[in-house]
Design a protein that fits this description.
Layout (H helix, E strand, L loop, with lengths): L1 H10 L2 H20 L9 H7 L6 H8 L2 H4 L8 H16 L1 H7 L3 H30 L10 H28 L4 H11 L2 H13 L5 H23 L1 E8 L2 E3 L2 E3 L3 E7 L6 H10 L1 H8 L4 H9 L7 H24 L2 H10 L2 E2 L7 H36 L7 H24 L7
Antiparallel strand pairs: 1-4, 1-5, 2-3
Helix pairs in contact: 1-19, 2-9, 2-10, 6-7, 6-8, 6-13, 7-8, 8-9, 8-14, 9-10, 10-19, 12-18, 12-19, 13-16, 14-15, 15-16, 16-18, 17-18, 18-19
Length: about 425
Amino acid sequence: MGMFETLGKAWQIPDIRRKIVFTLLMLIVFRLGSNIPVPGIDRSVLAEAFTGQGLFELFDLFSGGAFQNFTIFALSITPYITASIIINLLTVAVPYLENLAKEGTEGRKKMTQITRYLTVVLALLQAVGFTFGLFRNALQDPGDIFMIIVIVFTLTAGTAFLMWLGEQINEYGIGNGISMIIFAGIVCRFPADINSALVSYRAGAVSVISLILFCLFALAVVVGVIMVQQGQRRIPVQYAKRVVGRKMYGGQSTHIPIKVNQAGVIPVIFGLSLMQFPLTITYFFPGGALEDFVNTYLSPTGSPGVWIYVSINVILIIFFTYFYTAITFNPVDVAENMRANGGFVPGIRPGRPTIEYLNNVMMRITFVGAVFLALIASMPYLIQQVTELRISFGGTALLIAVGVALDLMKQIENQMVMRNYKGFL
């Protein structure tokens, strides 16, 4: 009830109300575009292309069903996510990008511009792969070059528009724009997936035990995500007293909060994006040995592919959790800022000992968050092997949805705190 009370108070503030309304309007535009079909496609052939293809569900998860229906937003925002991964990884290796990252606001603007260009290039490549690979048989006239060009540019423009839509939400709305688009795509599928599960139960394809097991798992995911997202290690910091002129400063105690899951749902999204890469390659070489290899060994529905897929996914999530945490939390900068302001961790000498202490704490606490993310993202595939219950909003979807919802509520909470209202979180 506290959450709804906070939302009610937020709605009464004109500035926050405008942001919420703007965000909702942008998400409505996204959902409308997700139902506008790409021209020149035979809809009756589309359903056959998705029969038994487990990896396609990952694309469909981010697009909110637009991929399976091959609408103008079929590529969704995944090219932008992939471009962000590439730029973040190159930041460590390329001096030019590393310098841009240190230049503050202007440097971030240039990196954002580079990410946009790379997004368009990746979207164009994926659009070509979809058109000439997976959906080639669905073309009404495969020999019509002009229509193929229209399809490719329509898909590319759809991704560019979603990227712009996310940036508009960042600037004029509330919440992270890209995350909100993914969140809307996931949530809009809940009713249809619940109905599909009930139909399978009535038909006898799924037992009541399987449904109960999944409900318990979903509840555990929601509770676990909330606990881990809100969990933090508070490192005490003591500031020494300083005399400046006739005034005395310092002498107070505070703390540095290090979150258990500093990276949020970003590692899961990054991991899923990279797991889609082998499937994207098969679009250019359909019906060959490569496609058979991917479907057998790198698919969550293959055998023994499910075990290989889960293992690689776990490694990627743990890697990206540490990588993203290292980008967002730098022990060297934190230690230097503390020393510059006369602060120190009780029992730890300033300088390198403080850096090593902060780094050790971050490494240990990040491991817990990384393992949690990996387990939540991987368990649904293993549960499917036991219960044969196929439902799209498994652990990954719930993890993303709950994580984005918590982040959204925290942003609303911050807006309320600035206006001296009691918040929910």
